[in-house]
Amino acid sequence: MAARDQHGPGAPWPEEGAPELAATNRSSAEGFRAVGQSMRKLEGLDKATGAAVYADDIKLPGMLHAKTLRSPHCHARIVRIDASKALALSGVHAVITGADLPTKYGVIPWTQDEHALALDKVRFIGDEVAAVAAIDEDTANAALKLIEVEYELLGAWLDPAESRQNQLTDERPAIHEGHKHGNISKRVELEFGDVEAAFEAADVVLENDFYFHSSTHAAIEPHCAVARESADGLLTLWSSTQITHYVQREVSRVLGVPQSRLRVIQPNLGGAFGGKSDPFSLEFVVCKLAQLTGRPVKMLWTREEVFYAHRGRHAMNMRYKSGVTKDGKLTGVSADILIDGGSYSSFGLVTTYYSGQLLTGPYDFPAYRFDSTRVFTNKPPCGPKRGHGSVQPRFAFEVQLDELSEAIGMDPIDLRRVNDVGEHTETVNGQRVTSNGFAACLDAVEEQSAWKERRGKLPAGHGLGVAGSMYISGTNYPIYPNDMPQAGIQLKVDRSGLVTAFTGGNDIGQGSSSVVRTVICEELGVDSADVRVVAADTDLCPVDLGAYSSRVTFMVGNATIDACRNLRKLICRGVAEEWGIDPSRVFLGRGEVFDTENRGNPKRNITTRRAFEIAEARCDTLGSTGSYNTPKLGGDYRGGSIGASPAYSFTAHVVEVLVDERTGMITVPNVWVAHDCGRALNPMLVAGQMEGSAYMGIVEALFEDHKVNRFGLHAGPSLLDYPLATSVDCPDLHALIVESIDPEGPYGAKEAGEGPLHPALPALSNAIFDAVGIRLRKLPFTPGKVLAALDEKRAREAASAEEAPSC
Amino acid sequence: MGNLNLKINGDHHPVDAPDHWTLLEVLRYRLDLTGSKQGCDKGDCGACTVLVDGKPELACLLLAGASEGREITTIEGLMPAHRAAGGTGADPVQDAFDRAGALQCGFCQPGMMLSTRALLNEEERPSRERIREALSGNLCRCTGYTQIIQAVELAIHETCGEPVEHPAWAPDQAPWGDAVSTVPGRKGTGSSDTTQGEQA
Q1: What CATH fold (topology level) applies to the domain A388-477+645-795?
Q2: What's the CA gap between A85 and A147, in Å, rounded?
Q3: Do B44 and A719 touch (CB under 8 A)?
Q4: A784 in the Ramachandran plot: left (φ > 0), alpha (ψ -120 to 50) or beta?
Q5: How far away is chain B from the Cα of A291, in angstroms, using its nearest Cα?
């Protein structure tokens, strides 16, 4: 089993004998040629010219179009479904209901509670009830109206606090009847150290309530799936998914088709952010309909349907209590969290753990407890959104840290420095921390924002705020227990000079295939134009678990290095045989192959392509595999491995804010984002992830709110009613890359896709405090909330002025 | 013969389509011009933006019948037009978007690039504020717009030599990605003869 420590973070060749390079950054100064270069993306020009194929761009001969009938009720039993009129409509080829796909599914094997189409009851407005395949969308839509469904309405659970109380009646039964804890989806209580003693030892203890609202991914591409079955029963599914492998597992199980006879392909993907990391109803449905009709079937969800599918950020009610000494040292933290899960489990088990387990860095505190409860409600199901489960607690805690710093009169950046957990250590809950660039992140945002000169000194209405965070680079918890690699890769090389990589890694726009290319260019010395990457096709590519938990750069990158090192050995051996020297004397890299002890001999200084030819002649057809699995990680207790990562990334933000005290309007002119990504394999892509993360955090704080009304109906399932920031609303984002060179990451790299979101929201709240002296602990930060808080502050000031003795 | 006659990317297309179909449906599902994307189908996101008589319009809100007799340009039309004018590679806007990292998932970008093309056809050197305004009808969920604005400024720099601020990840001394596009009437590649401090 290949774990990263086999290879170390350095270049593949010995330093002696390596040619000098003109250094343009740290990586090239260390002798790397491809690593550290802002290469174009592998598929960039295809995307730029409109040639890139996304799921809905697929058109197959004879293809039918499918549509879904959705529940208009948020909690009801299905008494009767009659699809006969729909089936009789001209142009309709099949109608299916829950009875056609009765097996439950779910991404986490222990909490499978979803049906592709509702079997006995519906649990939110938008829950899938039936599906139609017809010659075109218009006919399919007309057929939906002809399906008769009789419902028996049940009492709705819309308040998570009520769901936690769990008072079940016949009129209002549990959302998942038969679930052993009623409406409690998952509860996790863990305690490390003596928290009560920690609060005794503190000089200041603060306790506050916080609220984080729900938000959704809103990837611009709606979900889409296309399926085809061949006459001999081979199924092919093209889907806009970020987890090809898990989709293959679940569709195979639900349809009773062996995995070997189900090919899942992810075409170009138009954004995901966690919103395409569950198996979804449409994937099962198009496969079933393709089987029934003998024709290819496509389903494209409308934007409205995407809002119902959701799986977005969980709303959380959080109570945090933290203690600090007068010199700024945290003594202990206690958290009680109520998580609104919506109607299904999705990744909720992990969410519940993450809500507590990922808070234990970048700050060291000797005592910690959390009690997190995820409950079911009759709302669109929540799941993983960028920064899964940890963005909400991070918001609460970082605002509380700001309040603690204010209480003891310490600069908020200094408070964070004092508590930095440092590198090569272990957190209070037993997570191993290796590289840690948090201190450098704080330095970077402090300097770039002119913090010392400006914070607390800006005119009224203008402020700066800081926050920090830590996030995982994948986790050693593989969703379903197994000992196989988390990431596998296969390479093919031949006399043409071309290197082709086959990776199960899902490129969802973050550039994972481009990362694979960078590694290959570095390891084999080829130009970027001579690398192809075939990705996320289960027939062609080795298994990779998918694009989630920020695992791809770390795990796929390491697997690629592993495969390349295996191939290098072959090529160097072939060339060494040809020259009659020891393989250790062959330098292969940077476009050159030469004998390190006889560089002057032109016969022993050849191109990479020539080296491939020699190796193909001497070692036969060339290829290799590589893989990555995490070392054993995590604390020795139940759930101790959830959130245990081979490497943690670190982030600090400073947000600059302008608050209009008359209107309550907040504008954010600047965000400085410093992120320790270990090493920037491609700085352009890293900066893009950092900027995109920061934008997403700021916007969800200011504009977004994924909520339902008192009937459980979504408040506005459109991109107008659920507003996203446009180019005129977006702050200037300043990406400050910090490189700590992780000992186990590929060339030292760690994640960059999710961590940089976390501090945006608390730093914004803290900046608002600096600007106008109000503490916003409840998201989103609407003008109404700002005005109410300002009124409250004025009333408080007036009251204390009255109480003050006159002189 | 179709019930519609559309002029798209310089070609006349007779098309049969239901009367209620939008231009976006005809482009995507009749003519296989799938570069125009559907993100919302109700005019909120801008992913379907095409140029109609040179102006950006939302193809999902325009009935196909209403676009008869007008010049329609889709994302697929930019590279051929650039080649027909003697250029190589893709349209400098497309090239710059790729080089500046503006294409993450890429789904909103056909619309974004066409809005940019329309802006640059109208104004040679728009200010950053003007760029933000011109792109405000196109939602992007990946980038936070920073690399998009940098891409537009790179395209302006390469077509008219306007000085450009390098992003932190592309220091002045390093090439900001080699251009694949050349522009008719200009020597060499788009970047080598104009970018100050680049190309050793």
Answers
A1: Aldehyde Oxidoreductase; domain 4 (3.30.365)
A2: 7
A3: yes
A4: alpha
A5: 24
Give me the percent of chain B exceeding a pLDDT of 90.
76
Closest CA to B121 of B89, B85, B88, B147: B85
- What structural domains and CATH numbers belong to chain B? 4-76 (3.10.20.30), 86-184 (1.10.150.120)
Q: pTM for this one?
A: 0.96
Q: How far is CA A42 from CA A176, A553, A629, B98, in A?
A: 45, 15, 26, 10
> Measured between beta carbons, which residues in chain B are less than 8 angstroms from residue A736?
168
Q: Which residue of B has its CA nearest to A723?
A: B44
| Residue pair B175/A38 in contact by the 8 Å Cβ criterion | no
Radius of gyration of chain B (CA): 17
User: Are the C-beta atoms of A487 and A502 separated by less than 8 Å?
Assistant: no
What is the β-pairing status of strands A262-265 and A235-239? parallel
Using the Cα atoms of residue A738, residue A744, residue A748 and residue A750 in order, give the sign of their dihedral: negative
Task: Compute how many other C-beta atoms are within 10 angstroms of the C-beta atom of residue A397.
Answer: 23
Mean pLDDT score of chain B, rounded to an integer? 90
Best B72, B103, B173 member to test A by mutation, with max A CBs in 10 Å, is B103
DSSP state of A205: E
Confirm or reject contact between A508 and chain B (CB < 8 A): yes
Taking all residues of chain A, what is their mean pLDDT, rounded to a whole number? 96
Task: Please name which of A673, A690, A7 lies closest in space to residue B142, comparing C-alpha atoms.
Answer: A690
Asked if the model's pLDDT at residue A787 lies above 80, the reply is yes
> The domain A55-154+220-271+276-309 belongs to what CATH superfamily?
Aldehyde oxidase/xanthine dehydrogenase, a/b hammerhead (3.90.1170.50)
Token reading at A76: 């009801």
CA A21 to chain centre: 36
Calculate mean pLDDT across residues A782-803: 95
Structure tokens at B167: 């992003």
pLDDT in tens, B38-84: 999 999 999 999 999 999 999 999 999 999 999 999 999 999 999 99
Q: Are A427 and A643 in contact (CB under 8 A)?
A: no
pLDDT tens digits for range A147-179: 999 999 999 999 999 999 999 999 999 999 999
Residue A456, helix vs strand vs coil: coil
Which of A49, A305, A722 should be substituted to probe chain B, the one whose Cβ sees the most B Cβ atoms within 10 Å? A49
Does residue A807 have a pLDDT over 60? no
Q: A25-82 pLDDT, tens per residue?
A: 888 888 899 999 999 999 999 999 999 999 999 999 999 999 999 999 999 999 999 9
What pLDDT was estimated at residue A802?
A: 85
Query: Is A47 within 8 Å of B103 when comparing Cβ atoms?
Result: yes
A447-486: per-residue pLDDT in tens?
A: 999 999 999 999 999 999 999 999 999 998 889 999 999 9
- pLDDT for res B163: 86
Task: Average the pLDDT over A535-553 and give the result.
Answer: 97
Chain A residues lying within 8 Å of B173, measured CB to CB? 24
Predicted confidence (pLDDT) per residue in A647-697, tens digit? 999 999 999 999 999 999 999 999 999 999 999 999 999 999 999 999 999
Q: Do B169 and A735 touch (CB under 8 A)?
A: yes
State whether the Cα torsion A661-A666-A667-A672 is positive or negative.
Answer: positive
Tell me, letter by letter, the H, E, C secondary structure of A270-310.
CCCCCCCCCCCHHHHHHHHHHHHHCCCEEEECCHHHHHHHC
Instruction: Report, at the CATH architecture level, how domain A4-32+485-533+541-628 is classified.
Output: 2-Layer Sandwich (3.30)
Reported residue count of chain A is 807
CB within 8 A of A750, min separation 6: which ones? A435, A473, A553, A554, A647, A648, A649, A676, A677, A678, A740, A742
- What is the spatial order of strands in the sheet that B4-8 belongs to? B11-15, B4-8, B71-73, B49-52, B55-58
